Amino acid sequence: MSSIYIIAIVFSTLLLLPTLTVGALVQEQPLVLKYHNGQLLKGRITVNLIWYGTFTPIQRSIIVDFINSLSSPATTPLPSTATWWKTTENYKGGSSALVVGKQFLHPVYTLGKNLKGKDLLALASKFNELNSITIVLTAKDVAVDGFCMNRCGSHGSVRNAGNGARNAYIWVGNSEMQCPGQCAWPFHQPIYGPQTPPLVAPNGDVGVDGMIINLATLLAGTVTNPFNNGYFQGPATAPLEAVSACTGVFGSGSYPGYPGRVLVDKVTGASYNAHGANGRRYLVPAMWDPQSSTCKTLV
């Protein structure tokens, strides 16, 4: 039995929402994610990666560097991905330190190029380790049920066959060929809404930089709501979680269709808001902060 929480495709919906006027009569209520008294993932957590399909060494290094950078040393320039991740410490239970563990390359498409939910579960069950997260990453030519139609990725849990414990997993797909306007925004023109110019991807790869945004969203959701009884708002079957509650916000001054003010490299024109490991730069989404009950941005 598995439980699944989905990054729904909501960018196009957000683009069509009206903005509040200064003189609005009804004041917007503060966003609050309720804690449902369940287990959170805290302490040292091993992150195992399954690369399904063809990924270049550079693409793999962009994602591995991102995960490593969430627990990077204080010498990383600010604003940093580690500072962004530190917001998860404000959720009950303290800090979560993510450490990349095993990596499994699966370039021969043994399960084909059209994956069902059961295929993702089979891949996610490869590593049965306590206090770990298994991340299944599918290449740009791999279709997954619901991908681009109603989700850009998902997280859930599988039972450990040995001891019955639940292990968390994440799936994220590369949308470069299938739906970059939905799952790689703001690095691609949106399908609907205002056609503002897309941002330049910080690592020069629209598909993988889009994966980073969705992976960041799902990692935050996994550690703060791993088994559907942690922090979330709304129905348990379609919860708003730590980052998905702040969809479309990357910098201050954001509004539907505009990601907000971010940093721009003067030479390459690439947009980013966080420094990561090995000199990399990333664009990470806003995260809800339990201390302030607001969507917190780095810039």
TrEMBL record:
Alphabetical keyword list: Apoplast, Secreted, Signal
Transmembrane segments: none
Signal sequence residues: 1-23
Keyword Hydrolase annotated: no
Subcellular location, principal: secreted
Any Gene Ontology CC annotation: apoplast
Domain of life: Eukaryota
Cellular localization per UniProt: Secreted, Extracellular space, Apoplast
Family annotation (InterPro entries): EXORDIUM-like
Entry keyword Signal: yes
Protein family membership: Belongs to the EXORDIUM family.
Protein name per UniProt: Protein EXORDIUM-like 2
Organism placement in taxonomy: Eukaryota, Viridiplantae, Streptophyta, Embryophyta, Tracheophyta
